[in-house]
Structure formats: structure tokens, C-alpha cells
């Protein structure tokens, strides 16, 4: 698995990362969760992205990968859900970081994101100050922001963050125009979420309740050529090799899916003409399409 510098932040991450939302599902067998996490590391996947809101995810990562801590980077998210603290306050951020450290059984976190908070929250400054103070105390390596659109642009321009996470896929390319080129120029590491766009091609008609309704409409509007590939391969090769992207994270509870995704990414970038064809389609149809949070 290709390893890439995470911006200029001093460590590397794999081109394919593991989104650990599925790992937190209590319906997932504990042994199966442990096997999946360890298989990811065995494949050379060195970025695992989790969050406080992902159920049992952080606890399971700590339980099953604690002995292999030096082999991967942890990306997690804070800002909400801490008893006794209002969301997005200084105390909430610090308490959230401490809680994540305990659940993940580690003494430091590699990347900690403010998780899609509003622009006014960012501008107020308390949440950012908490992240930076925690970094000064050695509790995290990179202060980061996860979000889209105006908030993402502000975070990149602010100079406070060393990492960002945003949607990058066939049908969500807004960030590729301005935000990510600027992030790359400034040495900010970039994690691409939703590289499969929640797989709208699964549905013959517009779905409801699957969190890809908007992507399904965009898919039908764009009708991109697959160039002989399956949709998953086209999507992963587009997102994982988009300019500025350090790692594209895909969530799964299946080792078989994990292996297939690794093979798809290892096939390398799309041909230049293929990539530009998809970019032109988005520019033609997606002038007013916002990044999906």
C-alpha cells in the first residue's frame, strides 16, 4: 500500500484509509471487528479514522490494536456529547480529547478534527484554542477540521489547522477547485471522505433514507463513463489520486470488501484523460452543488 506524507505534518498515511464507523456497530461481532482491524494493518493501511459518535469504534480500536499503536495513525473527531459541557466549548473539546485517549488506550492522537462545526463556532475561537492547547501538551499531533464549503475554506485560510477532512468523490468535487489546492500549498494534510459517494449506483430509483439521495441525483445528471471499470474502482481511483488527497477513507465491516478496495487503490491513478473527463462533467453540471456534510 502506497504511503504518503500527511502534508508537512511529519508522518505518513496510506493512500487507502479505514473509516471505522462500521467498527462501532454493536451488531458487529467482537472477534470479527478485531480481525478486520488487524487485517487492515497487515495490508499496510496506516490511517484509521474514527469519532466519538461512532458507537464502540474508539474502544474497539484501542482494545484490538493497542499493541500495534506504532503501526498506524489515528484520526478522530471531537466537539460534542460530553456530559457536563456545552458542545463546542473549550472544556468540551479538552474533555473529548481526554475521553478519546482513554478509549483508544493511547497517550497521543495523531489527528483530531473539530467535527463539522458551524462557521461561527470556528470564528469564536474557543474550540480551536482548546485543540492547540492540547497539542502543546502533547496529546495530539495535528489540529484538524472536518467539514465542507465555506467552513472548510475558512479553516484552511485561518492558519490554525494542519489537517482537513472533506468529501471527495465523482459527484462531490467542489473542494478540488480552490480549497484543496490551497491546503496542499500550505502543507495541510487532506483526508478524503465518502470516496464511493455512498454508492448511488446500487439503486434503480432515487433512494430514501440511505444518505445518498443527493449523490444519486448527481450521478444521473452527470452519467460519467466508467471506462470499462466497475463503479467502485472508478470512484476509488478518482478520489484516492485526486490532487492534494493524502488518504481516501472507506468504511466497511467486511474483510473481503477491504481486500477489494485495497486492490482497487493499488491499481493507481486514472489516466489523465479519464480523470479530466470526470472533472469536466462536474464543472458542467455541478456549478451550484455544495459539498455534502
Number of domains: 1
Structural class: alpha/beta
Radius of gyration over C-alpha positions, nearest whole angstrom: 18 Å
For the record, what CATH class applies? Alpha Beta
Envelope shape: globular
What string gives the helices and strands in order?
Answer: EEEHEHEHEHHEHEHHEHHEHH
Count of individual beta strands: 10
Strand order of the largest sheet: 3-4-5-6-7-8-9-10
CATH topology: TIM Barrel
- Could you describe the largest sheet, including whether it forms a barrel? 8 strands, parallel, barrel
Tell me the CATH architecture. Alpha-Beta Barrel
Q: What is the CA–CA distance across the termini?
A: 28 Å
- Beta-strand residue percentage: 15-25%
Helix content: 40-55%
The helix count comes to 12
Kindly report the name of the CATH homologous superfamily.
NADP-dependent oxidoreductase domain
Q: What would your notes on this structure say?
A:
It is a single chain. This protein has one domain (3-285): Alpha-Beta Barrel (TIM Barrel), CATH 3.20.20.100. With 293 residues, the chain is an alpha/beta fold. It is built from twelve helices and ten strands. Strands 3-4-5-6-7-8-9-10 form an eight-stranded parallel beta barrel, surrounded by six helices. A two-stranded antiparallel sheet has the order 1-2. Helices cover 41% and strands 16% of the residues.
Which short descriptors sum up this protein?
alpha/beta, eight-stranded parallel β-barrel, two-stranded antiparallel sheet, 12 helices, globular
List the helices and strands and how they pair.
Blueprint: E1 3-5, E2 12-14, E3 16-19, H1 30-42, E4 47-49, H2 57-65, E5 73-78, H3 90-104, E6 109-115, H4 119-124, H5 126-136, E7 140-146, H6 149-158, E8 163-167, H7 174-177, H8 179-185, E9 189-193, H9 213-222, H10 231-240, E10 247-251, H11 255-266, H12 272-285
Parallel strand pairs: 3-4, 3-10, 4-5, 5-6, 6-7, 7-8, 8-9, 9-10
Antiparallel strand pairs: 1-2
Helix pairs in contact: 1-2, 2-3, 3-5
Amino acid at each position: 500500500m502506497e504511503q504518503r506524507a500527511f502534508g508537512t505534518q511529519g508522518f505518513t498515511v496510506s493512500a487507502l484509509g479505514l473509516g471505522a464507523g462500521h467498527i462501532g456497530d454493536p451488531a458487529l461481532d467482537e472477534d470479527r471487528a478485531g480481525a478486520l482491524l488487524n487485517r487492515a494493518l497487515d495490508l499496510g493501511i496506516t490511517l484509521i479514522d474514527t469519532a466519538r459518535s461512532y458507537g464502540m469504534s474508539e474502544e474497539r480500536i484501542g482494545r484490538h490494536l493497542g499493541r500495534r499503536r506504532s503501526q498506524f495513525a489515528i484520526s478522530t473527531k471531537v466537539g460534542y456529547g460530553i456530559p457536563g459541557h456545552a458542545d463546542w466549548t473549550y472544556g468540551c473539546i479538552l474533555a473529548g480529547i481526554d475521553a478519546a485517549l482513554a478509549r483508544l488506550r493511547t497517550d497521543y492522537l495523531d489527528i483530531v478534527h473539530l467535527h463539522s462545526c458551524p462557521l461561527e463556532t470556528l470564528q469564536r475561537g474557543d474550540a480551536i484554542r482548546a485543540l492547540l492547547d492540547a497539542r502543546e501538551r502533547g496529546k495530539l499531533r495535528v489540529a484538524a477540521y472536518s467539514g465542507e464549503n465555506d467552513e472548510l475554506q475558512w479553516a484552511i485560510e485561518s492558519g490554525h489547522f494542519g489537517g482537513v477532512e472533506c468529501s471527495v468523490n465523482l459527484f462531490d468535487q467542489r473542494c478540488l477547485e480552490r480549497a484543496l489546492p490551497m491546503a496542499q500549498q500550505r502543507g495541510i494534510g487532506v483526508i478524503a471522505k465518502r470516496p464511493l459517494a455512498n454508492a448511488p449506483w446500487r439503486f434503480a430509483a432515487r433512494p430514501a433514507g440511505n444518505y445518498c439521495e443527493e449523490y444519486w441525483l448527481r450521478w444521473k445528471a452527470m452519467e460519467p463513463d466508467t471506462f470499462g471499470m466497475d463503479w467502485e474502482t472508478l470512484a476509488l481511483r478518482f478520489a484516492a489520486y485526486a490532487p492534494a488527497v493524502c488518504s481516501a477513507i472507506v468504511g466497511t465491516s467486511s474483510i473481503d470488501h477491504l481486500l477489494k478496495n485495497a486492490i482497487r487503490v493499488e491499481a493507481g491513478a486514472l489516466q489523465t484523460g479519464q480523470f479530466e473527463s470526470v472533472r469536466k462533467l462536474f464543472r458542467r453540471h455541478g456549478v451550484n452543488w455544495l459539498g455534502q456534510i
